[in-house]
C-alpha cells in the first residue's frame, strides 16, 4: 500500500479527517487539488462554527441548547434534513473546540453589534484562512504527507471497498480512504445542467457568481454518483446561495462581497417590484435564502435599497453602494423604471407601522396592506442620502452529495462501505436539504471529518467502523 489512509481534499473536513487518522497512528496522505497558495477550499473563506452550549462557555455567551439549534436548522431546511445526523452534528459542536485548539486554532472573544451571533457561533481568530493554515501546520508537524495540485478523477472500487485512486495518471493505493473534495459549484457546465434553461432559452446559472474556490469542479462527486453508483442525496439546484454584490469577482469573492443591509430596507427586482419579506427573521438565519430568491428573479438580479437611517447598522461590503440624494435619482442610477420604482417605494412607505425600532430584536415595526409584507424592522425609506446595491446569486457550495449514516461510510445500494468514507460538502446534503444558517457548514465538516478520519483509521487496521461522533 502507498499509505494507510488516503484523504482526498484540502478543506476543513479533509484536514480534520487527516489529523484524526494520523493521531490514531496511521500513515496518512492528503491530496489537495489546488496549488499551495489556494489551499483550503471554501473553508478558507469561513469565519465561525455554530456551537451548541448549555451555559456560557469560553468564547460563547449565554446558552444555545440542543433543541434551539435543532429548531433553527429545522426551520431553515423546511424539514429536509436527517434528524439523527443533524443532532449528531449539533452535539459534536459542543465538544470539538478543545481538539481544534490542540491543533493550533484560536478563537476570538465574543462579538457584539450587527452580527447578533456571539451566543450561537464561535469565531476563528484570523478567519478560515488562519484555521486551515493551523491545521496544515499541525498535519505537517505530525507527519501527514501533503501533495498539492493533485486532483483525483477516479477511484478503483471493488465490491463496495476502496482499492486505489488515480491522480494525474498516478495510481495511489491505500487501506482506506476519505472523500472530502467538495461540491460542484465551480463547474459552470454542471450548474447549467442542474438549473436548465428558462422560458426565454437563457441559462439562469450563467448569472451566478461563485463565492468560494474555483477548484470545486465536482469531478470526484460525478464519478462517485454516475460511474460508481454510490447512493446519493440532495437536489442539484439546492445550495448555500447568498445575495452578493453584482460587482463581485466570478470566484473567491468570499464574505466581503455579501450584502447585509437587506433587512434594513427593501429589495426590488429588475422590474422595480418587491418579491419577499425582507424582515422575516434575524439576518444570520435568513441571509442564505436570498441568493436563491434572487436566482428566481428576471435576469437573476435584484437591488437592495436603504436610506441614511440604515448606515452603521450592518457590516459594510467591499464595494460602496450607489448613492443618490433622491429616490428617483437612485432609480435612474440603478437603471430601474422610475415610475414603477416610486410606486413600489411609496406603497411600502405608506404601509409602514413603526413601533419601537430595534434591529437586535424581532421588533414591532411592520407593514400593513402591502404585499409582500415586511414583518420586522419596517421603517419608511425617506431620509437622504439613499443607497442601492445590485445583487447577484453567490453560490457557496452545493448540496447534492453522497448518502451516509452515522459512521460516515459511503453507501452502495444501501450497504455501507467497509473502508470508504465521506465528509464535508460531499455529504452535507444529508443535513442540509435546503437553506442554511450561519456556521453550520463548519459544524458538519468538523463533526463528519473527525468521524471519517477515526473510522478510516479503524478500517486501515482491519477493524469495524464506530457509529456516532468522536468522544474527546
From TrEMBL:
It comes from the Bacteria. Coiled coil: none annotated. The keyword Flavoprotein applies. Keywords: FAD, Flavoprotein, Oxidoreductase, Plasmid. Its cofactor is FAD. GO terms for molecular function: oxidoreductase activity. SUPFAM superfamilies: FAD/NAD(P)-binding domain (SSF51905), Succinate dehydrogenase/fumarate reductase flavoprotein, catalytic domain (SSF56425). InterPro entries: CobZ, FAD-dep_OxRdtase_2_FAD-bd, FAD-oxidoreductase_2, FAD/NAD-bd_sf, Succ_DH/fumarate_Rdtase_cat_sf. Residues 4-431 form the FAD-dependent oxidoreductase 2 FAD-binding domain. PANTHER family: FAD-DEPENDENT OXIDOREDUCTASE 2 FAD BINDING DOMAIN-CONTAINING PROTEIN (PTHR43400:SF7), FUMARATE REDUCTASE (PTHR43400). This is FAD-dependent tricarballylate dehydrogenase TcuA. It comes from Comamonas antarctica.
Amino acid at each position: 500500500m502507498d499509505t494507510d489512509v488516503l484523504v482526498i481534499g484540502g478543506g476543513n473536513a479533509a484536514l480534520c479527517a487527516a489529523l484524526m487518522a494520523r493521531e490514531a497512528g496511521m500513515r496518512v496522505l492528503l491530496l489537495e487539488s489546488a496549488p499551495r497558495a489556494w489551499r483550503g477550499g471554501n473553508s478558507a473563506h469561513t469565519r465561525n462554527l455554530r456551537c451548541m452550549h448549555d451555559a456560557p462557555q469560553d468564547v460563547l455567551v449565554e446558552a444555545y441548547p440542543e433543541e434551539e439549534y435543532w429548531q433553527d436548522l429545522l426551520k431553515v431546511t423546511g424539514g429536509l434534513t436527517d434528524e439523527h445526523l443533524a443532532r449528531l452534528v449539533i452535539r459534536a459542536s459542543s465538544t470539538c473546540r478543545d481538539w481544534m485548539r490542540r491543533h493550533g486554532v484560536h478563537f476570538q472573544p465574543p462579538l457584539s453589534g450587527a452580527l447578533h451571533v456571539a451566543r450561537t457561533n464561535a469565531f476563528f481568530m484570523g478567519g478560515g484562512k488562519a484555521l486551515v493554515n493551523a491545521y496544515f501546520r499541525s498535519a505537517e508537524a505530525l507527519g501527514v504527507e501533503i501533495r498539492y495540485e493533485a486532483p483525483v478523477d477516479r477511484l478503483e472500487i471493488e465490491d463496495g471497498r476502496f482499492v486505489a485512486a488515480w491522480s494525474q495518471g498516478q495510481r495511489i493505493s491505500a487501506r482506506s480512504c476519505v472523500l472530502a473534495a467538495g461540491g460542484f459549484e465551480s463547474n459552470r457546465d454542471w450548474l447549467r445542467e442542474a438549473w436548465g434553461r428558462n422560458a426565454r432559452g437563457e441559462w439562469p446559472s450563467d448569472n451566478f457568481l461563485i463565492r468560494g474556490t474555483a477548484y470545486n469542479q465536482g469531478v470526484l462527486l460525478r464519478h462517485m454518483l454516475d460511474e460508481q453508483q454510490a447512493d446519493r442525496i440532495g437536489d442539484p439546484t439546492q445550495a448555500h446561495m447568498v445575495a452578493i454584490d453584482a460587482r463581485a469577482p466570478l470566484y473567491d469573492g468570499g464574505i466581503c462581497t455579501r450584502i447585509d443591509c437587506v433587512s434594513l430596507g427593501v429589495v426590488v427586482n429588475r422590474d422595480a417590484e418587491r418579491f419577499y419579506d425582507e424582515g422575516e427573521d434575524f439576518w444570520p438565519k435568513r441571509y442564505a435564502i436570498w441568493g436563491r430568491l434572487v436566482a428566481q428573479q428576471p435576469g437573476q438580479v435584484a437591488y437592495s435599497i436603504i436610506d441614511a437611517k440604515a448606515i452603521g447598522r450592518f457590516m459594510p461590503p467591499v464595494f460602496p453602494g450607489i448613492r443618490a440624494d433622491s429616490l428617483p435619482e437612485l432609480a435612474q442610477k440603478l437603471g430601474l423604471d422610475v415610475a414603477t420604482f416610486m410606486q413600489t417605494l411609496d406603497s411600502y412607505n405608506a404601509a409602514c407601522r413603526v413601533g419601537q425600532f430595534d434591529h437586535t430584536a424581532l421588533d414591532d415595526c411592520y407593514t400593513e396592506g402591502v404585499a409582500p409584507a415586511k414583518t420586522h424592522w419596517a421603517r419608511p425609506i425617506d431620509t437622504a442620502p439613499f443607497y442601492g446595491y445590485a445583487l447577484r446569486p453567490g453560490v457557496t457550495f452545493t448540496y447534492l452529495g453522497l448518502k451516509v449514516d452515522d459512521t460516515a461510510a459511503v453507501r452502495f445500494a444501501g450497504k455501507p462501505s467497509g473502508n470508504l468514507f465521506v465528509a464535508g460538502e460531499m455529504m452535507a446534503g444529508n443535513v442540509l436539504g435546503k437553506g442554511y444558517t450561519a456556521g453550520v457548514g463548519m459544524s458538519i465538516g468538523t463533526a463528519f471529518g473527525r468521524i471519517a478520519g477515526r473510522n478510516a483509521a479503524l478500517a486501515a487496521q482491519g477493524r469495524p467502523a464506530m457509529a456516532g461522533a468522536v468522544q474527546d
